[in-house]
């Protein structure tokens, strides 16, 4: 499965003093400088309305910068056609119902890669692998609206995975997922990472981002306020900054600090530090 | 006074699959009851049945009884249900009316439909806005909100109906950590001070640990465990039911497995 959904290389994404103002005057982005290397996995965290979704929508041309620049694969996004960007950057929306339109699960997943010119056996394999990755094998003939919300969300993910874009953007992939669903999302990110694809995820789940992503970018009011590995971002020195945007580090980080073990953003790093401490 | 499901089984119209089987559940006024379980276990269906929307509005076949106080949902009329029991759907986009030009009007939509005096409508909207701290959103266009903002507005619209019971299907799924705490505090306050009975479906067991007095677990349409929140959330079978235990429980277990102590 890993190779099937995740073949191909990554793609660099960048913004330079990116600003964006919605038509109603809401300033959603205010000078964002962000460089994401090809094959990097980054999580965006921050409050509702801090600009995370607005930011990622610039990478596939859904939104165009009010000021500043957006670079995809090193080239300004403005010089690329939206159809070309669709081959490069796949976005899984937060709300699957804004994405799903087909009458059958399989048709929904076929749509993207078919539009990119794929057909025959390659298309079949791609679609089968994407459905398997999200655990929807066997539901090919089901109407998407007969699936529960959480599985519709996984279907939205499958339809983007099937396009095999070098960069994949996941807008709150774990919302509404149970423990198994969250584990599935983790496996998908790991498979994409192993294949060298670029992954950008938006999430409110601090435990999930600390355990799955090597780099975290914290946003507040349209700006990036912290950017680094989980051990640094969730380190005690940054707690006051996190508090300015009402974020709390994962429990493992707080426990590690309480026990004087340094920065332990994940359960595994906390246990490891405890074992070292005992030894 | 309570919301009671007794011997409830249910299947959707046009389907032979039994989605709920033999469910007995009571939510007293003034208490918060959590419902957890894997996706597709029947949580949303239980919400629809408890609120009286199934089968009255969407059809299907119900066995057993559902009572909201002394009112049986089998004979209740929609407006009677709406005044007793407020329901928040999982996807806020399906809940917002789509007819209100501003968030304020959206929250007022429910109370207006109850034909309340204007002063009462205003008071209810203002109170819901204050409870959820969404004063900065009231002039916005409901169609141009983030997912989390839409979820808060949909909840505010339900609170403005001032129901005796609230049935909430993953009310914080799209909220940031602060929004999640805020909703938790608002629900605790409603239960404690306004004597509201709350049934809340949640994957965030950390939220339930601090909010619910009791938690029930549903698997494949049956309630398989239930009791005081602290006991149920520490039940070792939770992961097997597809439910993530609260972070302190997970950490303590991982430490114990590694032979170290967090003390």
Shape of chain A: globular
In angstroms, what separates the terminal alpha carbons of chain A? 40 Å
Low-confidence stretches of chain B: none
Number of helices of chain A: 12
By secondary-structure content and strand pairing, the structural class of chain B works out as alpha/beta
How much strand of chain B? 15-25%
Strand element count of chain A: 10
Oligomer: heterodimer
How many strand units of chain B?
10
Largest interface: A-B, 41 and 40 residues
Question: What is the overall pLDDT average of chain B?
Answer: 94
Order of helices and strands of chain A: HEEEHEEHEHHHEHEHEEHHHH
Straight-line distance between termini of chain B: 43 Å
Helicity range of chain B: 25-40%
Descriptive overview:
The complex is a heterodimer of chains A (279) and B (263). Helices cover 38% and strands 21% of the residues of chain A. Chain A has 279 residues and is α/β, with parallel strands linked by helices. In chain A, strands 6-7-8-3-9-10 form a six-stranded mixed β-sheet. Chain A has a four-stranded antiparallel β-sheet with strand order 2-1-4-5, with no helix packed on it. In chain A, helix 4 (105-115) crosses helix 5 (120-133), helix 4 (105-115) packs parallel to helix 6 and helix 11 packs parallel to helix 12 (267-278). The longest helix of chain A has 16 residues, at 179-194. The termini of chain A are far apart. Residues 1-7 of chain A have low confidence and may be disordered. Chain B has 263 residues and is of the alpha/beta class. Chain B is built from ten helices and ten strands. In chain B, strands 6-7-8-3-9-10 form a six-stranded mixed β-sheet, sandwiched between helices. Chain B has a four-stranded antiparallel β-sheet with strand order 2-1-4-5. The longest helix of chain B is centred in the last third of the chain and has 17 residues, at 177-193. The radius of gyration of chain B is 19 Å and the shape is globular. In chain B, 51% of the residues are buried. The interface between A and B is large, with 41 and 40 residues.
């Amino acid at each position: 499965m890993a190779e099937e959904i995740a073949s191909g290389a990554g793609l660099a994404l960048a913004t330079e003093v990116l600003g964006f103002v919605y038509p109603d005057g809401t300033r959603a982005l205010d000078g964002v400088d962000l460089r994401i290397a090809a094959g990097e996995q980054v999580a965006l965290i921050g409050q509702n309305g801090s600009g995370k979704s607005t930011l990622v929508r610039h990478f596939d041309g859904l939104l165009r910068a009010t000021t500043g620049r957006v670079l995809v694969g090193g080239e300004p996004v403005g010089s690329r056609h939206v159809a070309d960007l669709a081959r490069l950057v796949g976005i899984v929306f937060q709300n699957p119902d804004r994405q799903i339109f087909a009458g059958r699960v399989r048709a929904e997943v076929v749509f993207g890669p078919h539009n990119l010119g794929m057909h025959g056996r390659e298309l079949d394999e791609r679609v089968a692998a994407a459905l398997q990755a999200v655990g929807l094998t066997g539901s090919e003939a089901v109407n998407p609206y007969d699936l529960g919300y959480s599985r519709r969300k996984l279907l939205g993910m499958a339809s983007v995975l099937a396009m095999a874009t070098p960069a994949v953007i996941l807008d709150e992939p774990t919302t509404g997922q149970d423990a198994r669903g969250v584990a599935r999302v983790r496996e998908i990110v790991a498979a994409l990472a192993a294949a060298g694809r670029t992954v950008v995820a938006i999430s409110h789940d601090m435990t999930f981002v600390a355990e799955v992503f090597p780099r975290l970018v914290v946003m507040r009011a349209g700006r990036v306020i912290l950017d680094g590995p989980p051990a640094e971002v969730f380190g005690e020195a940054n707690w006051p900054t996190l508090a300015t945007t009402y974020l709390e580090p994962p429990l493992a980080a707080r426990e590690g600090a309480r026990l004087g073990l340094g920065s332990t953003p994940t359960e595994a790093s906390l246990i490891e530090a405890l074992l070292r401490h005992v030894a | 006074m309570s919301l009671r499901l007794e011997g409830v089984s249910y299947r959707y119209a046009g389907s032979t699959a039994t989605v709920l089987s033999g469910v007995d559940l009571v939510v007293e006024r003034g208490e918060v009851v959590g419902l957890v379980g894997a996706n597709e276990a029947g949580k949303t269906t239980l919400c629809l049945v408890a609120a009286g929307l199934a089968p009255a509005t969407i059809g299907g076949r119900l066995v057993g009884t559902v009572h909201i106080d002394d009112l049986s949902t089998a004979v209740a009329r929609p407006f009677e249900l709406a005044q007793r029991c407020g329901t928040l759907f999982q996807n806020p986009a399906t809940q917002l009316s789509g007819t209100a030009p501003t968030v304020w009007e959206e929250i007022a939509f429910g109370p207006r439909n109850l034909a309340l005096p204007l002063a009462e409508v205003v008071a209810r909207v203002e109170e819901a806005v204050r409870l959820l701290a969404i004063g900065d959103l009231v002039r916005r266009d409901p169609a141009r909100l983030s997912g989390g903002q839409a979820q808060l507005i949909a909840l505010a619209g339900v609170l403005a109906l001032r129901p005796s019971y609230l049935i909430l299907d993953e009310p914080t799924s799209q909220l940031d950590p602060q929004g999640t705490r805020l909703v938790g505090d608002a629900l605790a306050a409603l239960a404690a001070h306004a004597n509201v009975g709350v049934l809340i479906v949640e994957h965030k067991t950390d939220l339930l640990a601090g909010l619910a007095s009791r938690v029930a677990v549903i698997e494949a349409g049956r309630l398989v465990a239930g009791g005081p929140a602290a006991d149920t959330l520490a039940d070792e079978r939770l992961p097997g039911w597809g439910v993530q235990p609260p972070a302190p429980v997970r950490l303590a277990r991982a430490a114990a497995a590694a032979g170290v102590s967090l003390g």
